[in-house]
Each structure stands twice: as C-alpha cells, then as structure tokens.
Amino acid sequence: MKREIAAALSILLASSVAFAQGNYPEKPVRILVGFTPGVAPDVAARLVAEKLSEALAKPVIVENVTGAGGNIGAARVAQAAPDGYTLGMVGNGSLIFSPSMYDKLDFDPVKSFAPISQIFVAANLLVVPADSPAKTLPELVALARSQPGKLTYAHAGAGTSQHLAAELFKSMAKLDIQPIAYRGTTVLLPDLLAGRVSMSFGNVVNVLPLVRDGKLRAFAVTSIKRSGIAPDLPTMAESGYPGFEAVPWFGLMAPAGTPQAIIDRLHREAAKIMQMPDVRKKLSDIGADAIGGTPAELAALIEREIPQWAKVIKGAGIRASE
C-alpha cells in the first residue's frame, strides 16, 4: 500500500512540475547584468528583454548587479532558484577568465549554470598611435623584437579581453612588451593618442572612430571572423596568427537545475531574437555581432576556453588584484 501511495505521489508531483513548466512563465522574469547601464551587455540584455517580453507575454526586467568585473551578478544568478525566473547575461570575463585569476569564486563556471544561448561577440582592434614608425603588423613585430622590453601596451584592466589579447599576442609572436594598466579604455586613450604607450588592443567602438579620423592606425581585429562594424580590417588569424581569438562575449544563462523544458523554450526565443534585423542592427552599432547559438554550443565553448585561457593567464602571472 505504501509503495502504491508513493508511486501515486511521484506521478502527481511529476504531473504538477510538467504542468508548471508548460505554463511558464506565470510571473515576471529577471535578467541580471553584472555591469552598469549603457555598456554592451546591458544594451544586449535590454534588447533581449524587450523581445522576450513580447514572446512570453510576461514582463522581462533587467536588473544591474555590478561589482568584481561581473562576478557579483554571475554569483547572484548561480545562487538563484532554478525555476526560470532569474536569468543572467554572463560574460567570458566571469566564466572563462576569473577562474584562473581568483583564488575563490562564489560559483563554478561549468557546474553552476545552465547555458541558454550565446548572445553576442564583440571585437578588439590592435592599434598604434598615428605617428608610430610601424605601418604594418609585421613592422610592429619587427620593431618590438629589435627593442626587447622597450615597447609598451596599454590595457583596460587586469583580466579584461584587451589585456589578455595583448598577452596572447606576446606569446604567439614571442615578444617582450610591457603592460601598462588603466581603469578602462577611455582612460588610456589620451596616452595612446599622444604616443606615450606603443600600442593597445582597444574595444572596437572606442577606437574605430579614432582610426577613421586618422588619429590611430589599426592593424587587425581579435575576433575569429571579421567584425561587422569594421569588415575591411583583417583578423589576427588572417594576419599570421592562426587560431588567435581574444574577444568579449556574453551568453544568456540560467541557474543549474533549471528544467530542460524551460531552457529549450528560452533558447528557441533567444535564437529568434538574435535573427531579428533590428536587434542585429542595434548590436552592430555598439560593435557586437549577434550569435544565438544552442545551449550545447555555449556549454562546449565554456569548457573549451577555460583551459585555453588558463594557460595564458597563469603564464603571464595575471591576478585579479593587479
């Protein structure tokens, strides 16, 4: 009798869970962003939220939870109830770079999340001052090799994609160039423009206007494909560094344990949203290329990139406290 009651309760519970998932969502959904309003992940989250609200017929609200380079927001997502009502726009800074830079994190990049879809990839540009003697990328490499330890690169903070792009460049080109850290891309630009630093990997949105005005010279983009906002510039891979990719990217994530039916629903909607012309145009305007990949593709990307970047980060001795 007890077995029959237990079996009946199990069936009832499974039916109620399935029913709840089938009626998802029944209340507003939150998308947490670990950065301030107006930056690329926030813009992307608000675009997704607007379209997702229409698709789900429920409000989708963006909340900014800033701090620790996006890690506080990522932790909040990881620790939320796995019911589909708290999602996160989480980037490779938290998922890929932070595990090798911090002694302790409040989340596991693989075990704490259920990937939904990679939303966008942005690009950095390798740039030098307009009066640099290096007119091409090979000339820049030759110049650096002729003066080991003399050339410098400016970066926007320890562990940013701009910093790691330069370290990957150093490793692949076998260069001895010295880092100079700044608190963000806009802060380093005056020294770069004045030639007080030799080069920088800058966010495409920040540096491309200066390239077009003739104030900086650009050699290549750090994305694996050419950037939609600067299609005339070759990639680093095309320029003689096969496999070179050092970009900021963000994905829509849910807490681990979120029911698969909800993940599937959210992925279907996210993939549709990323194909909408107005969404793609707005992302392109901020230097981002829309993706909309599958949960499996995003999970594979995370597992593949963690050890790749761990080698670069540990080899360069980069710590979050820098």
Largest sheet: 6 strands, mixed
CATH fold description of the largest domain: D-Maltodextrin-Binding Protein, domain 2
Class derived from helix and strand content: alpha/beta
Q: In the residues, how many domains can be counted? A: 2
Q: Which radius of gyration do the C-alpha atoms yield? A: 22 Å
CATH architecture of the largest domain: 3-Layer(aba) Sandwich
Annotation field: number of helices = 11
Anisotropy-based shape? globular
N/C terminus separation? 65 Å
What is the overall pLDDT average? 92
Uncertain runs are: 11-20
Percent strand equals 15-25%
Topology, number of strands = 11
Give the strand order of the largest sheet, numbering strands 1, 2, ... along the chain: 2-1-3-10-4-11
| Helix amount | 40-55%
CATH uppermost class of the largest domain = Alpha Beta
Write the H/E string, N to C.
HEHEHEHEEHEHEHEHEEHHEH
Assign the CATH superfamily of the largest domain.
Bordetella uptake gene, domain 1
